[in-house]
């Protein structure tokens, strides 16, 4: 079922809730892939009804060309969901349904961790993500909402968002879905040709390398090694490689055996920006 007005969506959900169903929300920007499917299946394992929103959110793009080139194909997405999960309620609002006539972000106090990595390189990105999710949570009022760990910093932002807004929704993080060569599933992969898809495996190789080096090498020497790996593949431009403490997501150069750490990468392959991360424990 595809619905594009928030009023009809709310009517449908009200009936479902009155019948005692729990509601799961999987927010997406479309160009659906296996990664979304695993989120949707996870949502079905925990909720009676699942809403998948498809909305390319303008306020989270700090680069007009990135927004313009973001892959969009709602009818293909609807077909994809009909094939894999025909029960899914697909919400495809227009921009004015979400933002009325003021397409602007709200400013949130997510904390220091958004000054690094995605927050550092995509100014205003997380305020845009927070703004759209706050609205989607208000419209859908889900019991649970599901997010992939590929966007790990985003997952932590969303957990903080519901703390700030007090919205009564449980935020569930789901493992990153990867292809057989380790490449994280992403809508942006649709913009890569076959040769680039093969080259993109470097990101997973680099993260795996960082993980294998972590217990017996300094953060500096791991950073050096990862930089070399990217320099050896000039089609790639590494934007950042950061090792952070999982607790606060702040990049660090020191290691404490009592802490857990994660490595994060963002890199451009041609014009396509790819991100990924991995636990180092
Ligand atoms: O991860 C995404 O696809 C987007 O950031 C989200 C969560 C759908 C918000 O627009």
From TrEMBL:
<dbReference type="InterPro" id="IPR003721">
    <property type="entry name" value="Pantoate_ligase"/>
</dbReference>
<feature type="active site" description="Proton donor">
    <location>
        <position position="36"/>
    </location>
</feature>
<protein>
    <recommendedName>
        <fullName>Pantothenate synthetase</fullName>
        <ecNumber>6.3.2.1</ecNumber>
    </recommendedName>
</protein>
<dbReference type="InterPro" id="IPR042176">
    <property type="entry name" value="Pantoate_ligase_C"/>
</dbReference>
<keyword id="KW-0547">Nucleotide-binding</keyword>
<feature type="binding site">
    <location>
        <position position="60"/>
    </location>
    <ligand>
        <name>(R)-pantoate</name>
    </ligand>
</feature>
<comment type="function">
    <text>Catalyzes the condensation of pantoate with beta-alanine in an ATP-dependent reaction via a pantoyl-adenylate intermediate.</text>
</comment>
<comment type="similarity">
    <text>Belongs to the pantothenate synthetase family.</text>
</comment>
<feature type="binding site">
    <location>
        <begin position="148"/>
        <end position="151"/>
    </location>
    <ligand>
        <name>ATP</name>
    </ligand>
</feature>
<feature type="binding site">
    <location>
        <begin position="185"/>
        <end position="188"/>
    </location>
    <ligand>
        <name>ATP</name>
    </ligand>
</feature>
<dbReference type="GO" id="GO:0005829">
    <property type="term" value="C:cytosol"/>
</dbReference>
<keyword id="KW-0067">ATP-binding</keyword>
<keyword id="KW-0436">Ligase</keyword>
<dbReference type="GO" id="GO:0005524">
    <property type="term" value="F:ATP binding"/>
</dbReference>
<feature type="binding site">
    <location>
        <position position="60"/>
    </location>
    <ligand>
        <name>beta-alanine</name>
    </ligand>
</feature>
<keyword id="KW-0566">Pantothenate biosynthesis</keyword>
<dbReference type="InterPro" id="IPR004821">
    <property type="entry name" value="Cyt_trans-like"/>
</dbReference>
<dbReference type="InterPro" id="IPR014729">
    <property type="entry name" value="Rossmann-like_a/b/a_fold"/>
</dbReference>
<keyword id="KW-0963">Cytoplasm</keyword>
<dbReference type="GO" id="GO:0015940">
    <property type="term" value="P:pantothenate biosynthetic process"/>
</dbReference>
<dbReference type="Pfam" id="PF02569">
    <property type="entry name" value="Pantoate_ligase"/>
</dbReference>
<feature type="binding site">
    <location>
        <position position="154"/>
    </location>
    <ligand>
        <name>(R)-pantoate</name>
    </ligand>
</feature>
<feature type="binding site">
    <location>
        <begin position="29"/>
        <end position="36"/>
    </location>
    <ligand>
        <name>ATP</name>
    </ligand>
</feature>
<comment type="subunit">
    <text>Homodimer.</text>
</comment>
<comment type="pathway">
    <text>Cofactor biosynthesis; (R)-pantothenate biosynthesis; (R)-pantothenate from (R)-pantoate and beta-alanine: step 1/1.</text>
</comment>
<dbReference type="GO" id="GO:0004592">
    <property type="term" value="F:pantoate-beta-alanine ligase activity"/>
</dbReference>
């Amino acid at each position: 079922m595809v619905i594009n007005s928030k009023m009809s969506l709310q009517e449908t959900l009200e009936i479902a809730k009155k019948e005692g169903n729990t509601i799961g929300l999987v927010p997406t920007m479309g160009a659906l892939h296996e990664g979304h499917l695993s989120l949707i299946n996870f949502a079905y394992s925990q909720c009676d009804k699942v809403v998948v929103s498809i909305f390319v959110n303008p306020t989270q793009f700090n680069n007009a060309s990135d927004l313009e080139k973001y892959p969009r194909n709602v009818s293909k997405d609807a077909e994809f969901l009909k094939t894999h999960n025909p029960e899914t309620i697909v919400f495809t609002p227009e921009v004015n349904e979400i933002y009325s006539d003021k397409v602007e972000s709200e400013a949130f106090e997510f904390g220091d961790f958004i000054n690094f990595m995605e927050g550092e390189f995509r100014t205003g990105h997380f305020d845009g993500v927070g703004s759209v999710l706050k609205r989607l949570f208000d419209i859908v009022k889900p019991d649970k909402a599901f997010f992939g760990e590929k966007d790990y910093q985003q997952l932590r932002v969303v957990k903080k968002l519901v703390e700030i807004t007090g919205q009564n929704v449980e935020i569930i993080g789901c493992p990153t879905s990867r292809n057989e060569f380790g490449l994280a599933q992403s809508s942006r992969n649709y913009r890569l040709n076959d040769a680039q898809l093969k080259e993109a495996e470097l990101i997973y190789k680099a993260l795996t390398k960082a993980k294998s080096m972590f217990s017996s090498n300094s953060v500096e020497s791991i950073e050096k090694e990862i930089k070399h790996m990217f320099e050896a593949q000039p089609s790639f431009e590494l934007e950042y490689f950061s090792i952070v403490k999982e607790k606060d997501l702040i990049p660090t150069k020191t290691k404490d055996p009592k802490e857990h750490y994660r490595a994060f990468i963002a890199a451009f392959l041609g014009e396509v920006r790819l991100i990924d991360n991995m636990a180092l424990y």
